[in-house]
Amino acid sequence: MKVLIIGIGNLYRRDDAVGLIVARALRQKNLDNIEVRELSGEGSALIEAWQGAERVIVIDAVQSGASPGTIFRFEAHQQPIPTEFFRYSTHNLGLAEAIELARTLGQLPKELIVYGIEGRDFTVGEGLSLEVARAAQEVTQRIGKELRGRSHFQ
Question: Which of 9, 45, 109, 154 could anchor a disulfide with 17, C-beta 3.0 to 4.6 Å?
Fold first, then answer.
């Protein structure tokens, strides 16, 4: 089974980098049979990236109004994700729209899990806010456990 982890973000927009940070942390764990990619979040690139993958995990910053560092987990292969959570994207076709387009075209992976981490600071600069950095560590651990918890990942 091909498994793909996609971290989304921009390293120079503070908390927007959280998806990339989690992806890098997971890459360092050297999980067997797992491909890790870093993308900006442009929708058509996402759809292209997950072609051929049976299981995809995407990590991105969200801006929903929840407390900074709040972690959301969506099973996007079963139902739409809230587009208002991912509205911070600077792309015309962002993550939520890419998922729905892929669903319409029959191009969704068999399993598509989306982790959203509520950001605090999206201004220009580097470094995650404290709450988001803690949430990034938690999501990294959760994904690692999720992957190791399945027999074909051991």
Answer: 9
